[in-house]
Amino acid sequence: METNLKLRMLAASTSLLMAAAIVVPVAAQGQVMDRATLVRGYAQFCATQGTQMPGAAGESDIKGDARLAAYCTCFAGKFADRALASLGKPRTAPFDMKKSVAEEYAMRNTCRAQMGLPKVVQTP
Fold this sequence. Notes:
There is one protein chain. This protein is mostly helical and 124 residues long. The protein has one domain (3-115). The protein is built from 4 helices and no strands. It has helices at 3-28, 35-48, 68-86, 97-115. Helix 2 crosses helix 3 (68-86). The longest helix is centred in the first third of the chain and has 26 residues, at 3-28. The protein starts with a helix and ends in a 9-residue tail after the last helix. Keywords: Signal.
């Protein structure tokens, strides 16, 4: 498997793990999902674990940047909204990894642009 594909798969699987790590325990306890709690959890993951992932798969290029926390909160909000919107909806089509990864790059780049940070380029 080529390196770029491995990084894309890592990014997508990390996002899915991040969602599962935060959403599943809350849902299993029968609690109502609180968007603010999800955003805090996602933002913390972004600022700590995301900065450890190299290249386009992570946020290592902005580790230590003063705008990292604001960027992570922005991205976390978009990520949480997408996760919450999908809950309880029957899947009408098979999961599309390419589409999911492209959506995440778009969310990341929207937030990076808002913070004046460099764009992440999705590798083919």
